[in-house]
Design goal:
Number of helices of chain A: 14
Helix content of chain A: 40-55%
Strand content of chain A: 5-15%
CATH superfamily of the largest domain in chain A: NAD(P)-binding Rossmann-like Domain
CATH class of the largest domain in chain A: Alpha Beta
Radius of gyration of chain A: 20 Å
Distance between the termini of chain A: 61 Å
Shape of chain A: elongated
CATH topology of the largest domain in chain A: Rossmann fold
Largest sheet of chain A: 3 strands, parallel
Oligomer: homodimer
CATH architecture of the largest domain in chain A: 3-Layer(aba) Sandwich
Structural class of chain A: mainly alpha
Strand order of the largest sheet of chain A: 3-4-5
């Protein structure tokens, strides 16, 4: 395995376990059969995979028959563009955003949502099976990104409900443990309630998944839904609330820091 | 057991199993040790429990030492008022709203959220244990209603996320079964996703829990949160969307009919 990243220090644990360091994405790609990419934004994806036309991109450095798996949460339209650009060079480009966080990645328990060519997906599956436990091929290029948008839309609504509910409970003077006992077993149950409510109640707002990443994801959902002629007011509200966190310097906290944005609000009258 | 309800037909299964019919709440209450009440709105609660001062209410008909358990989802402030009025007559009034729906009620698997005097709660517990499997005493009168408000706030956010996500998935052309496989095992998981998404996907919008009841509950959450100086934009959005359903004659459908309100929306530009 050959690896690179902007902050070399972060690759050290892999190097110590036998991975070889390369100086650039292009150097990683030379001679590779499969290249995995996981970066920050669609702009980063474009730069790393497509490059600038002077040989800096993964796609330019790969031989025909190779495959790229982009694990970044990015836009369906960019995924489709890169798949087309790859096909022209005989390289398969799969979009494969993940859910499950740093814990899921460490435990190889990720949910991986895949879009792209079926033959390439089947060829990459043994590798994907080493990374996750829910590997679903959703359709052509971009479909994985759409599935991830669905995932983040679900999370957005649940997080709003969770944080408003806990702020209400606190203000009403309820005992948090008693409330969680009452609401956890029924129609209000969720992964977020089980996993994030205890952290909120102990004022542990460390990520998990950082606010600034979620803001990027919500922006993708809003752009895509608007493009499809949809109006999603819950995602819009989540976007507004999470941007309020970023504006208050809380972008590096976990998504459950949304309680702070709710606590800051005051009634209109 | 002595029972009454406005629509006598609905009591028939209980009568057939040995319950005795009474013509009014006051007649039910004469000689009773514990009276359970479950009606529609706070106004109904006021009418049935407090009555009109001419002997029509449960409270007026009970002897000192008796208890009233109000299972209705109502306001914390009314619960406190009725508990005070009861105390003046030596009658304990507990607020005990439930979660778990008609299925939970039939299977004695309700979550019951209780506010009121501890001695009375302990005295009623053997009876409550026959009705639910999660029986939590949250504190003084009104606390049970506050806990139920917390429950409905969680549900409101989750339902918005669920319905927006499924509308997005449909519009993006994703296969619903594949999407549910991808998102059900991780951070997007919820009771609603597991139990209501399949009904939405098969276009089964029957309640479960009816929209018009949820609108009543959301109104209580909004009134109480506003009284406490809180602004809960997610609950406000849910209230707006569910009122849209009522305005379209869909108040008798289940809460998951929220997909219809999302589908009807069009982008602002």
């Amino acid at each position: 395995m050959v690896v690179t990243t902007r902050t070399a220090e972060r690759a050290r644990p892999l190097i110590e376990r036998g991975a070889r360091w390369a100086e650039s994405p292009a150097e990683v790609s030379a001679g590779a059969l499969v290249v995995g990419v996981m970066v920050g934004t669609p702009t980063d994806v474009q730069a790393v995979i497509a490059g600038d036309g002077t040989g800096t991109g993964v796609l330019e450095a790969l031989a025909p028959g190779a495959a790229i798996i982009d694990f970044t949460t990015s836009t369906p339209s960019l995924a489709a563009e890169l798949a087309t650009a790859g096909a022209e060079r005989g390289v398969s480009v799969l979009d494969a955003p993940v859910s499950g966080g740093d814990v899921g990645a460490r435990n190889a328990a990720l949910s991986i949502m895949i879009g792209g060519d079926t033959v390439a997906v089947d060829r990459c599956r043994p590798l994907l099976d080493r990374l996750g436990h829910t590997i679903v091929h959703h359709g052509p290029a971009g479909s994985g990104q759409h599935a991830k948008a669905v995932n983040q839309t679900l999370v957005a609504g649940t997080m709003i409900g969770l944080c408003e509910a806990l702020v209400y409970a606190h203000r009403a003077g309820l005992d948090p443990g008693s409330v969680l006992a009452s609401v956890s077993g029924g129609a209000a149950a969720s992964w977020s309630l089980t996993n994030l409510a205890p952290r909120i109640l102990s004022d542990d707002l460390a990520p998990g998944f950082a606010v600034r990443h979620f803001v990027k994801d919500l922006g993708i959902v809003l752009a895509e839904s608007s493009r499809m002629g949809l109006d999603l007011p819950g995602v819009q509200l989540a976007d507004e609330l999470y941007r309020d966190l970023v504006a208050h310097g809380e972008g590096e906290l976990g998504t459950h820091a949304l309680v702070r944005a709710i606590e800051r609000r005051v009634p209109h009258r």
